[in-house]
Amino acid sequence: MEAETSNGGGIGGLYVKVMTDDQMELLRQQISVYATICEQLVEMHKAVTTQQDLAGLRLGNLYCDPLMACSGHKITARQRWTPTPLQLQILERIFDEGNGTPSKQKIKDITIELGQHGQISETNVYNWFQNRRARSKRKQLTPAPNVVEPEVESPKEKKTRAEGFQVQPYENSSPHRIKDMYIQSPDIGFDQLLGKIEVASCYSSYFL
Amino acid sequence: MEAETSNGGGIGGLYVKVMTDDQMELLRQQISVYATICEQLVEMHKAVTTQQDLAGLRLGNLYCDPLMACSGHKITARQRWTPTPLQLQILERIFDEGNGTPSKQKIKDITIELGQHGQISETNVYNWFQNRRARSKRKQLTPAPNVVEPEVESPKEKKTRAEGFQVQPYENSSPHRIKDMYIQSPDIGFDQLLGKIEVASCYSSYFL
DNA sequence: TCTTTATGAATGAAAG
DNA sequence: CTTTCATTCATAAAGA
């Protein structure tokens, strides 16, 4: 993939991706196509399983879900808590609400709520917010490479800060919250299925 | 995709979009998410229809089974920094100087210095030291504990990480062809969907 | 090719 | 809160 272009590859240079309008449009369509395919696959699946048991799919224990066959071999005891996609989703939402410091009581409440979606303790919640805050802050400071190109970068302004950057398949999905893509579904059944899908997928990596 | 190496937004009548790494990463994730969802939906569908013949999915065809083609590889081509020999050399030198904890400011300095030899970010430097320390320590402890782990771990087959990510983008396909991927009917067949996913997959790799 | 190894990155937990 | 550690995941590079 050669889409990467080093702009002014010099010291502390600003590195950006350059795309043509066509390429950009292609991406939009790409995502759109996936969104459509997903919806239809879900519909299809629902139709096919209407009468079926889905025996393996309703296991209470998420980690034993047969769907994980592809990625899960870690059914053994895990030493550290790993938020389920659903839990993460909720945590992120709460975090985004801005109420910075989750009070002691708040933590309790959250823990109880998340407990419905998987094992969790107050400490987990506490740590999560602790880390989330810290890392959120760090990331905010890092991307400030006060670009100063000693290089004779042609006087082209860093134009088009990719402003028209809107490729959400669903109008209500937020560009800066990938996780939301899992839940912002207009379809009830779809949403439910996605919950399982999330579990089945190799978590961690897709939810950062 | 051969990217325009010239970042000049409008030079020579060339219109391009400029994206930051973050934005590119976001797109990558969005597509990856959908690809994963599709993948899992397919798995789910297979599980439910194991008794069926899956006629349309015969492997006899020269083309890879759409199912495999799609689930085999992940559209997770995350780019990751790779230190140049020169950078590595400098990093090692600094590390050997023993000054254990590269303070925040120190990291900035190092980053700037290394930036002269290739793209790099503070995070990269930070991670490098983090890993370097951790692995340096581990290596020291490993030799001793010859504890034979009574690991009765099942014969565990290799995860056969289908890493065949060299999906060749349809070189001969033009952007307008993607329209063919759109689905008109909600009652499209399963195998047909798979076909579309496969195509979508290829397009994804084309960008990511 | 396919498999294995080395290592960049992500993150829960804990120390400071 | 900030910084560090430990573990794990994913991938680029190297090996077979």
UniProtKB/TrEMBL annotation, chains A, B:
<feature type="domain" description="Homeobox">
    <location>
        <begin position="74"/>
        <end position="139"/>
    </location>
</feature>
<protein>
    <recommendedName>
        <fullName>Homeobox domain-containing protein</fullName>
    </recommendedName>
</protein>
<feature type="DNA-binding region" description="Homeobox">
    <location>
        <begin position="76"/>
        <end position="140"/>
    </location>
</feature>
<dbReference type="InterPro" id="IPR009057">
    <property type="entry name" value="Homeodomain-like_sf"/>
</dbReference>
<keyword id="KW-0539">Nucleus</keyword>
<feature type="region of interest" description="Disordered">
    <location>
        <begin position="136"/>
        <end position="172"/>
    </location>
</feature>
<dbReference type="GO" id="GO:0006355">
    <property type="term" value="P:regulation of DNA-templated transcription"/>
</dbReference>
<dbReference type="InterPro" id="IPR001356">
    <property type="entry name" value="HD"/>
</dbReference>
<keyword id="KW-0371">Homeobox</keyword>
<feature type="compositionally biased region" description="Basic and acidic residues">
    <location>
        <begin position="153"/>
        <end position="162"/>
    </location>
</feature>
<dbReference type="InterPro" id="IPR044559">
    <property type="entry name" value="WOX13-like"/>
</dbReference>
<dbReference type="Pfam" id="PF00046">
    <property type="entry name" value="Homeodomain"/>
</dbReference>
<dbReference type="GO" id="GO:0003677">
    <property type="term" value="F:DNA binding"/>
</dbReference>
<keyword id="KW-0238">DNA-binding</keyword>
<dbReference type="GO" id="GO:0003700">
    <property type="term" value="F:DNA-binding transcription factor activity"/>
</dbReference>
<dbReference type="GO" id="GO:0005634">
    <property type="term" value="C:nucleus"/>
</dbReference>
